[in-house]
Amino acid sequence: MADVPRSEGPGAGAPRVAVLGASGFLGSAVAATLARRRLRLRLVARRPSAVPAGPVAEVEVRAADLTDAASLAAAVDGADAIVHLVCHRSGARAWRTDDDPQGEWVNVGMVHALVDVLRAARGGGPRPACVFAGSASQVGLTARTRIDGTEEDHPASRYDRHKVLAERALLDATREGVLRAVSLRLPTVYGESRTPTAADGGVVTAMARRALAGEPLTVWRDGTIGRDLLHVDDAAHALVTGLDRIDELAGRHWPVGTGRTTALGDLFRAVSRLAADFTGGQPVPVVTVEPPDHATPADFHSFTVDATAFRVATGWSPHVPLHEGLVRTVGALARERAAGAGAARLRGT
């Protein structure tokens, strides 16, 4: 699945790649990356996905409820590779880990159903490749300040426990010979959305929207809690690289990140300054507050993601510096806000 020039189209024998969760924030970025390649691309999600602009790939869009076994089987039928990006998060706190018990079927049960579908369809041909989007926070409350994938997992939230169970099911199925799966454990992913229906629900976007609206930004305690921030384009590139190097990577998890941790207080102040640059106003204040009752120990845990093993194995590295990524993110939201205000004025005339 090497990169190909944009001028080349898919051939009759081009591989078929199914992206599950293709209409989401990360899914739309993965779709855009894969659409530049000579392959047959199937974009599957609950709501129709946008077709990336100027695709080289032959793109098929399917709207399907992937919690339905028959729909899931149809979604991956004939696929040479699968990118699994489906997850359940609560709408009220989408930028935090999700403690909604209703999410277990989506986060875990659907992975077991996928394995069952592929096991039933297994023939004498090549086993399909599968890249799973895990989370760096799966490791839990480790004593290490830098994680490299050799730590034992002690997940501290229900969402992370779901991720561990789903990952384990895929890796067990790899050892069984059902498929070739790899889990890439991503840190906090942020960035500008590619389509209006693929909005980022993360902390960077949430705070940028507040700053652009002139609202103060709140940070828990002293703001020194740190996060590894990976731009969505780099995250998408990592997932596609996982498909490219599936034979070297399959059967284990790999932490992916920038290797740098940014304190949330510093992050929010940077977002406030950038928002002011776009609005022409003064930066909104960043104020410290006490954590809410729903905060968990994992919310106060900082660590740096060491992606050395993944970089050595694949040659991948992040290319979007944090400042550039923040400028792009806040700028996109500022333009979206301005367009919305203009449309509202037109409706009022």
Protein described:
Helices cover 38% and strands 17% of the residues. With 349 residues, the protein is α/β, with parallel strands linked by helices. The protein has a domain at 16-190 and 231-259 and 304-320: Rossmann fold (3-Layer(aba) Sandwich). Strands 3-2-1-4-5-7-12 form a seven-stranded parallel beta sheet, with helices on both faces. A two-stranded parallel ribbon has the order 6-15. Strands 8-11 form a two-stranded parallel sheet. Strand 4, helix 3 and strand 5 (129-135) form a beta-alpha-beta unit. Helix 2 packs across helix 3. It is globular, with a radius of gyration of 20 Å. The N and C termini lie far apart (52 Å). Residues 2-8 and 91-98 have low confidence and may be disordered. It comes from Streptomyces silvensis. The chain crosses the membrane at residues 17-35. It holds the Pfam family Epimerase. This is Oxidoreductase.
Task: Give a brief description.
The protein has 349 residues and is an alpha/beta fold. It has helices at residues 25-34, 69-76, 104-121, 158-176, 203-212, 232-244, 246-249, 264-279, 308-314, 322-348; strands at residues 16-20, 40-45, 58-63, 81-84, 129-135, 146-147, 180-186, 188-190, 217-220, 226-227, 229-231, 253-255, 262-263, 286-289, 304-305. It has a domain at 16-190 and 231-259 and 304-320: NAD(P)-binding Rossmann-like Domain (Rossmann fold, 3-Layer(aba) Sandwich).
